[in-house]
Queue: 2 jobs
Job 1
Amino acid sequence: MQDQAETVAQRAAAHRSGARKVTDTIGQTLERAQAVQRAFNAFASLDADAHIAAGAESGPLAGVAISVKDILDVAGLPTRWGSPLFAEAALAKTDMAAVARLKAAGAVVIGKTTTTEFAHSPLGSSPLTGMTLNPWNPALTCGGSSAGAGTSIAVGATRVALATDAGCSTRLPAACTGVYGLKPTLSLIPHERVPDGFGSFIHLGLLGRSVADIAAVLPVVAGPQPNDPWSLRPPAATPVAADAPLAGKTVLLWMRTGNRMVSREVEAATRRASAILEELGADVREADYGFAHPDPIWKTLQQTNWALRFASSSETELARLSPTLLAGIEEAKGYSGLDLQRAQVARTQLFRAVQGVFAGVDFILTPCTSAAPVAADFDLSGPLMVDGAEAGDLRSEWTAALSLFDLTGHPAIALPVGLGDNGGPVAVQLVAPWHGDMALLGAAAAFEARVPPPVWAGAV
């Protein structure tokens, strides 16, 4: 079995030097992934004969095994969207731009990870693939919508996964499974296949076993792509301080971002993280959030996206969708053009508000979620319970700090900080200005050195 402590960079170097054969690594990885699949249902499909392209022994990601969320196209594999509607989907003919860049760098895609149906739910199951389990406690959700991505990394199937994040879908499963999840600056990793390129808030994100692994992959997949307009702008120069990336930096702590409640254990974990940042040289200042709740804005924009996708679907097709997805589509049908325009304006106002905050601080710190992972079979029609009290709607109250930065486009990373009382991981979120991705990763790496992530016993 491969050494799970070996980083992506070290693994690629071993392949380039000839110290290890790529075929051996991928064979072992597939064996591990198949065992993980039987135990945790993390993969929507596995490529038992994963194609190892010419040059896989020489690229910057030489022979590194990567998984891709099953709403992103990988040539030769089906894209099923976690939906019975695509159960018999044809094999994709072309790669997404990010996938093509991974392959060109020598990485090998071993399969597609599970997703909630059309990536709509913060929980970890779909009507096509069923429940993906959280290895820390199978009774708890592994988080959605990139359910299999977090679980597959937590149990050691791969070290990096390519996923998406439109409301929480990279950082939430990372938080729930005790791994790292980066939502980069909007379109830093281009997403050239979104229907609305100009109004999009759908990010491509990376989940990893370590900050170093994410940092090794991000430069490979980042960069302009002609069909994604927001990817075409030149990134700002953001040199990273190698020795003390937080020294002299100012961090603003928001304990809430429109949500009403935060559990005592999450608040305590966030304050411990704040103290670590101070020990690393940062000046941490706490303040009230004071801006619009992101969820009503997000809901209007996202639900109209869903409604547009299924506008020409038959009643028979609609009846096969998850009830929660169908409910969102039906709600969107009641929105007017003015409602949609108001949401777009409100998104702009939220962006400008956060931009104003970054005029005076270097990073923002928040909890990832307002409480530890909820039950895997959580009833989305019921309220989130926080310390025994009803907090309200799950998405509005549990993940407000995540959807906020999808709307504004700022880069954000989920940092695991330990395990909660129910055995599930707890995480905080660190956020940087636009194009501050490398500075963010530098700060995250410094934090990781002081607060190592929890390691699931079966992963090593």
Job 2
Amino acid sequence: MALRRVEAGRDAQSMVLYGLRGVGKTVLLSRFAQLARERGWLVAQIEARSGVTMRDMIGAAFHDDLVDLARPGIGARALKALRTTLSYKASYDSSGTWNFGLDLDQAAGGGADIGSLEADVSKLLRDLAGAAEERDVGVAVLIDEAQDLPHDELIALCSVVHSANQRGSRIVVALTGLPSLPRKLAEAKSYAERLFDCSSIGALDDDAARQAIVEPSQIEDVHWDDAAVDHLVDQARGYPYFLQQYGQDTWNACDHQPITLLDAKVGHTRGQLALDTGFYRIRWDRATSAEKDYLRAMAVDGDEGSASGEVAARLGKKITALGPIRAKLIDKGLIYAPDHGVVAYTVPAMSSFIERQVTDR
């Protein structure tokens, strides 16, 4: 819908998809990127991560699309965008050069290298949007794990989106991240809620979960007993990643059909082991001993969230003394603050995993 609105010359609100780990946010973002590319849009799809700035990632992400754009006979606005991109590249990498195979000396553009993230990104996207408009398409900037962007980059990003909206530029920004993302955007700019359409992505309902298990099997003409499907749906709690893991391990464990309840139980057991040694373990191992103690104290409350004061009481410490540990866990993406004075896991069913790690210190 957003793509069609922009192509028709109308405004389209940028979007934010937020939710716990494993609910399919990245898959949805990648699908959006695919749809945009199929329509000929210029697309930058990046993942926020430590040690790499948004400036660098956006520049690199557009490179391949711009190489495709650089064809003899392209319009003046496209030439302008290419020259602006070269200046933008110079703003973060003076040692590297791009060559689009065209003479850009007489082209307008440039000026995306003044050193201000907001100004440089805004100039880049504005000129790219102009080039896209020559082809009746637009520009999409898609950022996964956006809650990991530094505060100053979130400020700049909100300002860029705000300016693009005011100009009516053909630009759509989509962000995905943890449940803390909308709050971080609001802290960056008070008007962020007007810039983005925020949607919570959660667990599937039972009917959708059953479809996720059964429909791929039908393509292969493989069928399930109802009891087998019900068992996996119940164990996965509607989380897509869990459904995928349990379904895959059930499929691999079974050499007959229909797939039975016993097969599903074997698949669930194997799938849970795979989740414990992969999905959960890689996050658990990122925590220090003191941080694991904090996570264990939270597990008493299950996955619904814990009052910071209660966690401190269980550990026999003051809230202020645990502040740095809490902050580190949030920074590592292991917990988030859904409300003032409350913390919760970012990973579904984390409390159950922790209960299985009672001897791991």
